[in-house]
Amino acid sequence: MSSDSRRRLGAITALVAGLFVGLTLLPFPVTGPIGHSLGQALWRVLGAGALGIPLLGIGLALAGFERLGTLDMKRSAFLIVGLSILLPYLTGVIFHVTVADLDTDRFLGRMVGVVPGFFAVQLPKGIGVAGAVLAGFLALCALTLATFAWHPLQRLERQPDEPAGTAKTLKADGARSEKAEGKRKAKEGPEPAEDSVRAREELRATKAENKTDAKADGRSAKGRPAKKPEPRRAPGEKDLGPVWDVELLAAPRTKGIDAAGS
Q1: Cα Rg of the chain (Å, integer)
Q2: Digit-coded pLDDT (tens) for 16-71
Q3: Distance (Å, rounded) from C-alpha 39 to C-alpha 21?
């Protein structure tokens, strides 16, 4: 038989056994005298924790059928058996179960059971009720951590991507920053659309290119001598020379003119 077949057979066996034990815990004998005696003994020893045995069978079956994720059959059995003892123990400590309750088979003693009730009676004598409750809580955390790596105080742990500091402080800082950002956006007005922003950037780039070309043309024009524009003449018009020639003019007199002699 292969390992998978043995695993499936073990899961089916655990399911059948759990259902049978669950039937023995019923108040009427549907499992015969043997089953009825077994159920009475379980109620006496484990109290309400005896209900964990049918759950144990169902849990083992689900684990064998690979319905519990990473929780295998061994860890499932350890978890359910531990809870079957811890929960009645905590019940007995909180409601102050006594030896008389356990011996006379009262309702509280029947719910707690002999084994969990023994610890529920003896531990508070040494460390008090508060210490016994804290011890039970510690045992519960150890049980859950050993089986599926979880504990009741999981929310108090700092996440890997969370900076140091309390969660309340981080939330308050985030709320203040969001509020300040909202006020800033309200003052600035609505942000421009993406298309308008792109159009403005393109217009700025075009203006910058035009300015660069104009500066280059100005530098090239300064390097070359300026040419005077040629006068335009109508068709058939003659080229007119200057009205007078400087060489035909007489030189100015160098001697003074006597106004009286003239």
Answers
A1: 52
A2: 999 999 999 998 889 999 999 999 999 999 999 999 999 989 988 888 888 877 77
A3: 7
CA 5/CA 70 separation, integer angstroms? 19
**Side chain identity at 36, as an amino acid letter?**
H
Q: Which of 137, 10, 22, 153 is nearest to 76 (CA)?
A: 10
Q: What are the CA-CA distances from residue 16 to residues 60, 61, 169, 219 (Å)?
A: 11, 9, 53, 100
Torsion of CA 188, 193, 199, 200, to 10 degrees: 0
Do residues 120 and 93 lie in contact, with contact meaning Cβ atoms separated by under 8 Å? yes
What is the C-alpha to C-alpha distance for residues 50 and 40, in angstroms, rounded to an integer? 10
- The answer to whether the CB of 117 falls within 8 A of the CB of 43 is no
Phi-psi region for residue 236, left (φ > 0), alpha (ψ -120 to 50) or beta? left
